[in-house]
Amino acid sequence: MSKEVRVRFAPSPTGDLHVGNIRTALFDWAYARHTGGKFIFRIEDTDRERVTDQYIQGAIDTMKWLGLDWDEGPEVGGPHGPYLQSQRLDIYAKWAQTFLDQKDAYYCFCTPEELEALREEQKKANQAPGYNGKCRNLTLEQQTEFKNQGRSAVIRMRMPEGETKFVDVIRGEVSFDHKFVPDFVLVRADGSPLYTLAVAVDDVLMKVTHVLRGEDLLSSTPRQIRVYQAMGVQEEDYPVFAHLPFVMGKDNAKLSKRNGEVSVSWYRAQGYLPESICNYLALLGWSPGDDKENISMQELVNLFTVDRVHASPARFDPKKLDALNADKIRALSSEEFLERSWNYIVEQNLIENNQGNKEIIASLLPIIQERIVTLNEIPAMANFLFVEQVEIEEESKEMMSKVETKEILQAALNQIKPLNTWDKENLENVLRGELIENRGLKPRIAFAPIRIAVTGSHISPPLFESMVLLGKDRCISRISKSL
RNA sequence: GGCCCCGUCGUCUAGUGGCCUAGGACUCUGGCUUCUCAAGCCAGCUACGCGGGUUCGAAUCCCGUCGGGGCUACCA
Fold this sequence. Notes:
The chain is mainly alpha-helical. It has four domains: 6-85 and 247-315, HUPs (Rossmann fold, 3-Layer(aba) Sandwich); 88-244, Alpha-Beta Complex (Glutamyl-tRNA Synthetase, domain 3), CATH 3.90.800.10; 333-386; 394-482, Arc Repressor Mutant, subunit A, CATH 1.10.10. It has helices at residues 19-35, 53-66, 89-101, 112-124, 140-148, 195-205, 221-230, 264-269, 274-282, 297-303, 318-331, 334-347, 355-368, 378-386, 397-400, 403-416, 424-438, 443-455, 463-470, 472-482, and strands at residues 6-9, 38-41, 105-108, 154-157, 163-168, 172-177, 184-187, 210-214, 240-244, 247-248, 314-315. The strands form five sheets. It has a three-stranded antiparallel β-sheet with strand order 3-4-7. It is elongated, with a radius of gyration of 32 Å. The relative contact order is 0.09. The structure holds one RNA strand.
């Protein structure tokens, strides 16, 4: 029996979680669930200048909303916590000291300005940039002298000669010559840890077995492995690495706000279903292998394996997300569609939250379910039911003023006024009978004026159903007003 | 510049040497249906970056090339 799979998602919340982050989180989660392992959610907030509590809370909310539940992490705790790196500073300090004692790391007194100058020089000389090891072998006396000069020190990891080779399950064997992996900083001059230290220490301490993360971290893997070595971890205990391809915006450009919408909370506010976002994102860099693309979260868990993840980057295409979301909305049961819609409307504050309004929406939902793409379209479609009179849209005003139009409206009025039972069948019978059969009008010609008079727009849910929902009085009133 | 990764329709992908005259989905175009809008149905457009090998045979393997991306921080 092999050991339990433990996967972590470890974002650094320097902003709203975007679709790229979430694609990674989704794969992490799906892999953990697929294997029956544990999903760990860790917040990498070692850079307190950029990470804020608000973003951390936002990340937690987004994960919950998407249904990516975690076994260990914020709010739920776990045996290897805390799961916020800012609460683990003593752990990193202890390991940094150990590395210093072992001579794996050393104090470096070079100032940022000196390092900048060094980089300039290297660039000019066309050399590989990187720390030149100036402070590698400082004597105690030299260190004291630097301190007396008022210099502060960072802790730097010593990178031995040689190379680091490892197998990335998505990319195969990857190797880095240490000539291109300079000594790197573990601890800032102010004593705070850097990602390079924290990520490796935590992955070891939290017993992470599989690191599935963005491809941008591929070239930092040798540094992470270097820390494992200093921690005394055996090679067979290194986690399995899998570097996921990027999710990109249009034109091959990196995903960013300028390049289409990226934040998951934006998609939430637009009325996308969380499972649509997950489903769509799952298709970026992974596929179920057959022709079925619309899958549930459970199917994703069942089908997800890392060997079906491929190595090339994917473009985020909002059009396909739309199509998937529309499909998923159509597939909702009427009860569920109502519950989701109403929750969304209330959450976004689009319509006042009371029982009467909810009932109006509930009555409308069945006739608009197959014609909306996102939940935020509901209020506009429902508008005609919430007002006493409608405003006729600009583009239809000319048509509505024509004599022929007035004639149709008058004829329709004559037919519906005497109706005792106000239902779809009766409305359709009398209106078709008079306008189509008696007058020989084409349906589209005959019904357009009524539609516009009643809903204000030439585009609406099905006419007779809409009239039923509106009620006889308001229909008569609106048609009369258009005469 | 150096190091690393990547390269199938416009986009997401299937494809692991013969089943590929390259399949599906989204988009787009045309048509059918139709009370509008949708939905549904049918049809069409469009791809293995390029050049060399290896092989009886290559989208699939190798080399080169070109193109894209990442890293090169006291960010992650």
